[in-house]
Automatic annotation (TrEMBL):
<feature type="domain" description="MmyB-like transcription regulator ligand binding">
    <location>
        <begin position="1"/>
        <end position="162"/>
    </location>
</feature>
<protein>
    <submittedName>
        <fullName>Putative HTH domain-containing protein</fullName>
    </submittedName>
</protein>
<dbReference type="InterPro" id="IPR041413">
    <property type="entry name" value="MLTR_LBD"/>
</dbReference>
<dbReference type="Pfam" id="PF17765">
    <property type="entry name" value="MLTR_LBD"/>
</dbReference>
Length: 170
């Protein structure tokens, strides 16, 4: 399923937001990320909000950060998992770029776009998540697939162009 979503990024994460698997296109977004953030287990929330992760490239950082923290907070409220609370506390403590409110709320009805600056231009992506409704294995019940869809034609073109070298090598 992840490979079928290419050239758009997609990943599978566990209940603690650790990366289980990703398609090749996700790596296109990870340029300039500190290597230690890419060592297993890779926590995708840490990767997205850490100052040496994607944080400096996210153009709507305040809104995206609030979106992710609210998702994590809701997940903690549903599960009471202390690991999630510790992750929330860690993420909230990360320094934020100048002028960004330390904690804010985002009021969105459908989706918050992820806007990432790249050498090829601005990527505007919408994320959608999927879980397995009636898994037969416990491990699958915690698996979440997150796909990123281009929010506009320019973003789709950038992702297609970035993926071309990898596709031509096959």
């Amino acid at each position: 399923m992840l490979a079928a979503h290419e050239p758009f990024p997609a990943m599978a994460v566990d209940g603690h937001w650790n990366l289980v698997h990703a398609n090749r296109s996700l790596s296109l977004l990870l340029a300039d990320v500190a290597p230690e953030l890419l060592q297993a287990p890779v926590n995708v929330l840490r990767l997205g909000l850490h100052p040496q992760g994607l944080a400096t490239r996210i153009l709507n950082f305040s809104e995206w950060r609030a979106h992710l923290l609210q998702r994590l907070q809701r997940q903690y409220e549903q599960t009471a998992d202390p690991w999630l609370l510790a992750l929330y506390d860690e993420l909230v403590a990360y320094p934020t770029p100048d002028g960004i409110p330390h904690l804010s709320r985002v009021n969105h009805t459908i989706a918050v776009p992820l806007q990432i600056g790249t050498h090829e231009g601005v990527l505007s992506l919408l994320s959608a998540t999927m879980t397995f409704g009636t898994p037969l294995e416990v491990a699958l019940s915690e698996l979440v697939l997150e796909i990123f869809l281009p929010a506009n034609a320019d973003s789709a073109a950038i992702l297609r162009n970035l993926a071309l070298p990898a596709e031509q090598m096959v």
